[in-house]
Amino acid sequence: MMISRPRLSTALLLMGLLALPGCDSDKGPEQLQKAEAKYQELTTRGLSARDARWDEVVAEFEAVPQESKARAEADKRLKALRAARGELPPQPLATPGSTGPGASGVDAKRAACEALAKKLGESRTDASRELVRRALAQCHADLTQLEANSHPPGEDGQDSH
Question: What pLDDT is attached to residue 67?
């Protein structure tokens, strides 16, 4: 009987060793590596995350099996890609401007737009809100025009002397 135990343990050890290569069937790391290569290629090319070529990269990351040890890294990349492809946050209603001596026309217009944005927030009725919204839209249009036409001294091609 003592002889059968070493044979049994040897047989179990052999079966375990034979089964070991079959246990490592995780294809996730290979898929992750393939997706990472495409990710790096598109990043190096400077393509916007909204470019259609990123769809293939997203599909590659999604193809990493859920049970894979590489899935956590794939999920991180997917989360970052989805955030980059999502909607941009809305522009603020106004940016701070300044008034007074030395303020440029652009700064003064920014201050006027800022004041209108505050007034819009304080409006109580739909009618007054609509009036202020229109005035703010016009202010933004005027500000855009001013910014497009204003240049620092010397930038317009003329000497500042």
Answer: 92
Judge whether 31 and 60 are in contact, CB under 8 Å.
Answer: yes
Does this model's pTM top 0.70? My answer is no
Q: What is the pLDDT of residues 72-112, one digit of tens each?
A: 999 999 998 888 887 655 556 656 666 666 667 788 888 88
143 found inside a domain: yes
Q: To 5 degrees, how large is the angle CA 95–CA 97–CA 103? A: 155
- Looking at the chain, the number of H-run helices and the number of E-run strands are 6, 0
How many separate domains does the chain show? 2
* Residues 105 and 138: beta-carbon distance below 8 Å: no
Backbone angles phi, psi at 154, to 5 degrees: 90, -15
- Whether residue 71 contacts residue 28, with contact meaning beta carbons closer than 8 Å, is answered with yes
Q: Which residue has better confidence, 2 or 129?
A: 129
Which residue range forms the structural domain that includes residue 58?
27-85
Whether 97 is in a domain gets the answer no
